[in-house]
């Protein structure tokens, strides 16, 4: 689950199936003690609606890291003195960055750094589609060292230049769950 609408959709699906969720948050659903859940019965209901069911701790942690990285992007954009990615994640999870990185890489088949770059580029695509800021302004807001650095990274990730992207009337965007 990567957004509040997903949380509500999962809550609704569980209730329609006769379960009584006490808490549904990003990447987690807790059912009341009186309605035992059989994961094998719940999984098809959620999968049919397009949700993945994560049973292992590593998968759950990876999804929590992804959600935290989305929050980190907002922190990057708004904080006067933003934390490093590693400091942000270790504060959030009370675990070493090394441990978080190993779990994430094994589960997502992608490093935290590469996932964060993809996430940033998707945010940049959104900003470009509004056509309200220059590339330098976007680079500054996203904490790139320069517009050229952003432009190079954009091309590496998308295979297209920023100019090509801007000329496209219907640019292709990825949903958050497609990034890894």
Characterization of this structure:
It contains nine helices and two strands, in the order H-E-E-H-H-H-H-H-H-H-H. The chain is globular. Strands 1-2 form a two-stranded antiparallel ribbon. 16% of the residues are buried. The longest helix is centred in the middle third of the chain and has 22 residues, at 57-78. It has 180 residues and is mainly α. GO terms for molecular function: DNA-binding transcription factor activity; sequence-specific DNA binding. It comes from Hymenobacter telluris. Residues 63-168 form the HTH araC/xylS-type domain.
Topology at a glance:
Layout lengths: L3 H13 L4 E5 L2 E4 L7 H10 L8 H22 L6 H9 L3 H12 L3 H19 L4 H7 L5 H12 L3 H6 L13
Antiparallel strand pairs: 1-2
Helix pairs in contact: 3-4, 3-5, 3-6, 6-8, 7-8
Q: What is this structure, in a nutshell?
A:
The protein is mainly alpha-helical. Helix content is 61%, strand content 5%. Residues 63-168 form the HTH araC/xylS-type domain.
